[in-house]
Write a structure and sequence with these properties.
Blueprint: E1 3-11, E2 15-17, H1 27-37, E3 42-45, H2 46-51, E4 62-65, E5 76-79, H3 82-96, E6 100-103, H4 107-113, E7 119-125, E8 134-135, E9 144-152, E10 162-169
Parallel strand pairs: 1-6, 1-7, 3-4, 3-6, 4-5
Antiparallel strand pairs: 2-8, 7-10, 9-10
InterPro entries: DHFR, DHFR-like_dom_sf, DHFR_CS, DHFR_dom
Function: Key enzyme in folate metabolism. Catalyzes an essential reaction for de novo glycine and purine synthesis, and for DNA precursor synthesis.
EC number: 1.5.1.3
Length: 173
Amino acid sequence: MALISIVLAVSTNGVIGRDGDMPWKLSTDLKRFKALTLGKPLVLGRKTFESFGSRPLPGRPHVVISRSAEIVMPMVETVRSLEEGLERARETAEDTGVDEIFVIGGGEIYRQALQLADRLYVTHVEVKIANGDTFFPPVDLDMFDPVAEERFPAGERDSFPTRYVIYRRKPAS
């Protein structure tokens, strides 16, 4: 069965968004995101889908959670709940031979998915954002072990330095 992974960038004070967008530019992180998710199903909320132009990201099947609108376009399936979205994404992963699906936001979808996630791929953006309006829920780090970590200075096209950490859910005791 495909792993459920969450991928996100978050400020030191938990901000993940502002005004329907990310409050930073992180070209280095976007390249890593693309490499990590290419060919794998994405589960996301409608507002997150709209934040990148209401077009699917190339090379990845999208399962969009929306209580109201059905999105009709290639590579996009609309569902009404996270549970339905994860089920469809797992079916797609099985059909395409991949072993991981990615939950990519937004805040409410992350909140619901956090209790189900096997892995977290977190870009810790080394800044406190004063006027964010979307937040990542607090993570009980007793539930996850960091398995890889790397620091990145702000590159030419990055607003801030980052720390990239992969967390794996601890086995149930």
